[in-house]
Amino acid sequence: MGSRHPGWTADPRDLLRAGPGFTLEDVDRGGTPGFRGRKSDAERFGRDRGRLLSELQERLFAEGRTGGTRSVLCVVQGLDTAGKGGVTRHVMSMVDPQGVALHSFGPPSEEELRHDFLWRIRNALPRPGLIGVFDRSHYEDVLVVRVKHLVPDDEWESRYDQINHFEKELVDSGTVLLKFALMVSHDEQGIRLMERLDRPDKRWKFNPSDLETRAQWADYQAAYQAVFERTSTDWAPWYVIPSDHKWYSRVAITEIVTQTLVDMNPGWPEPDWNPFEMRDRLAELMSSRALTESLADTTRTVAKAVAADAKVQREEIEVSLDDVDSEDAAARADERAALAEVTAQRAAYVAEAIRTKQQKQRLVTAAKARETLR
Fold it and tell me: In the list 35, 286, 331, 341, which could disulfide-bond 324, CB 3.0-4.6 Å?
């Protein structure tokens, strides 16, 4: 079948996960692991993948609006200039904004300080059906707090276990947790900070405290290493994203979020009412002219749904089965079964469309009769 995952040689979730023995020093922050091509290829691939991401996000949103309990939470961490805001703008701009819940966490307020460090995080968790994005998060309480000695060592030390317990509880309740650490190199961060100083339209992003943070670079690297060692778990792994190339971090996160939604496989919810019955009732409130126009649009409307749904399912198959040996009998069998499901779904849509047109023809006739009697 050839490559079913254009641009990627392997699933970035496998390539970028901070597993046992992970060492931050080994990360090439100017690298682009697993992606074939350059910036223009990544941007084109990201746009293509965005169409699938948008469809899957809408399905998840619909699921949440009809009693579903699942959600996605993307935690985005990184030092200044790593590209956290750009990830939010570029990746989440591809989905319906009503399905995204964004929260940025700065220094805690007086009220937040009166509670435990996870209190404000719990209050910002995404509702079912939403994709939540945290620009910084509870990890500030084992990063900034540790480096700047804001609390005693034993206090921040105990937070790793609290975080793991909290995240396990969160995942068990139906939230898929994706943790992204954007790792920029020391030189690249300096260049980006200098650009903020040079450009009048970027100076608002610069804060003199950025220089204090930069002077503590080694301490922050050690703090991040501890975070990966202590909190990259089976239920909530860290993905460490080389970020000297902003286009790479964006396309990698887009792919990981898309792959995750494919695995979740959200479907369109089934209503607890009969569309044929509702169509009868609605027709009583429509003119024969409007019903005739609706009848004429039936084939086009259903064909649009068929094409969109089949396309999404085919893309899901391609994403899910990528990098599987095409000679593997089990993989081929899975693929045939998945494609057969697409064919069956298309046939079901067509059969219902035929019934719908027949019903509408009867409704048009009835509406014209009613109007003649008036």
Answer: 331
